[in-house]
Design a protein that fits this description.
Length: about 450
């Protein structure tokens, strides 16, 4: 919580005021669809049909509605709506493991050690902190199956996401403890909070770093979440038209994307959703080492569900007129090795042959990651950057993690060049050391 005293009070008020003064219909939002484990760029957004037998898989590229833009045949729905998104094919970083990859991409810091949580806060926690308004009924930041390995670090646990877990496709699904309507329960909660505040007043004079103020703010927002009918409505996916639910796909990923759209439309600023679990295959993620999955069977197994869910989200955001305000991003922590590896399966199941069977895989590859952007007022229907003929190295418009974050912060109205926080040791840490927004994404309108 030490970071809560890190900005000067005038500076903090200026930053928060700038965010709060945005008209409601201009308050920007971000949805990130996270492909945990790292999706193969070669079997999705950056196919390489002439790479040779040691590199090329069994799937061919197909044309899209954007002339010259080809993607994998596994993504026909993406091809149909390609004018509504832009692909970046040249993201490069140095995080060779899942923790490092996620933390580098979403904090901007050159994390090299394997840590379950980062030393520095991620972009969502930072934006949540700067936009924090305890009077809002809705939370700023929701993780619909949150992204692993990231966190709020020295900003404190108050700026972690409100977590939505479970299978949203379950007819009995609900988010517990939202919009409590029982007035007796509400009254008891109020009494307990009032009693605690009486004790807190005794501690306030001893509080030197603003912790009590932060807890009060966190508590106020928690109270609003617990008691607001508006919050309950936003999270009630059963209010959606059954045809809309069908459009996204009656499965966990489709309904996670639908929930993300419901939340940003209702006023939530930051939504992350992770595609994991049984829909990925035997090991529950996109980490297609040969010991885990047959990479080609894994991609064939999961991409129909992925293709439907993501394209429904993109189309729905555009159809509802949210495409200027809401930026949709689809990515994992890295791509996969262009050269195919082979190893014995460690277990049979979906997308994996029986134990001991030699099968193909692709390993971690942060030297070439593809990222999809849609909405947010960006230039759509384009490709940014390129990799070589095998998909190994970025050869055009190499983009780093700081550029990626600068782009997202710009959309969210965060002045990344001027914001710094004190870490646990009291050292001021800028949220971005350098990096410029990806200019090809910026609308010229």
């Amino acid at each position: 919580m030490a970071g809560l005293g890190s900005l000067s009070l005038p500076g903090l008020m200026r930053l928060r005021s700038a965010a709060a003064e945005q008209p409601k219909n201009e308050r920007t939002a971000v949805i990130i669809v996270w492909l945990i484990g790292g999706m193969s760029h070669l079997e999705s957004y950056d196919p390489k049909p002439l790479s040779g037998s040691e590199y090329k898989g069994p799937y061919d590229p197909i044309a899209t509605q954007v002339p010259g833009l080809n993607i994998s045949e596994l993504l026909p729905e993406h091809a149909r709506i390609a004018k509504k998104f832009t692909l970046l094919r040249s993201m490069v970083h140095t995080g060779f493991c899942h923790q490092q990859g996620a933390q580098q991409l979403l904090t901007g810091h050159p994390v090299r050690e394997l840590k379950q949580k980062p030393d520095d806060p991620d972009l969502f926690s930072i934006t949540h902190y700067l936009r924090n308004n305890p009077d809002r009924a809705l939370p700023n930041y929701v993780g619909v199956s949150p992204i692993p390995y990231i966190g709020s670090a020295y900003l404190g646990p108050a700026f972690e996401p409100l977590t939505v877990s479970g299978d949203l496709n379950d007819p009995k699904f609900e988010v517990p403890n939202l919009g409590i309507s029982d007035q007796q329960v509400v009254g008891r909660l109020g009494e307990r909070i009032g009693l605690r505040k009486g004790f807190d007043r005794l501690r306030r004079d001893l509080d030197r770093v603003g912790n009590m103020h932060a807890l009060d703010s966190f508590e106020s927002q928690a109270w609003n979440v617990l008691t607001s009918p508006e919050t309950r409505r936003a999270f009630d996916i059963h209010q959606e038209d059954p045809r809309t639910r069908d459009r996204y796909g009656r499965n966990a990923w489709g309904q996670q994307c639908l929930m993300a759209r419901r939340l940003v439309e209702s006023g939530v600023d930051l939504v992350t959703t992770t595609f994991s679990g049984s829909l990925c295959g035997r090991v529950g993620n996109w980490d297609d080492h040969a010991v885990n999955h047959n990479v080609f069977e894994g991609m064939k197994f999961r991409t129909p569900i992925f293709d439907q869910a993501v394209t429904a989200l993109i189309e729905d955001v555009h159809d509802r007129g949210l495409d200027k305000r809401v930026l949709v991003i689809v990515t994992g922590e890295f791509g996969r090795t262009p050269k195919i590896s082979y190893a014995a399966s460690t277990g049979g199941g979906s997308a994996s042959a029986p134990t001991g069977t030699i099968q193909p895989g692709r390993d971690h590859w942060p030297s070439a990651t593809s990222i999809l952007f849609s909405g947010g007022g960006i230039e759509e229907g384009a490709v940014i950057g390129a990799t070589d003929g095998r998909g190994e190295q970025a050869t055009e418009r190499r983009v780093g993690v700081q550029d990626f974050l600068a782009t997202v912060y710009r959309h969210l109205g965060v002045d990344a060049e001027r914001v710094a926080f004190n870490n646990f040791s009291g050292r001021p840490i800028p949220i971005l050391a350098d990096g410029k927004p990806i200019h090809e994404l910026l609308s010229r309108a």
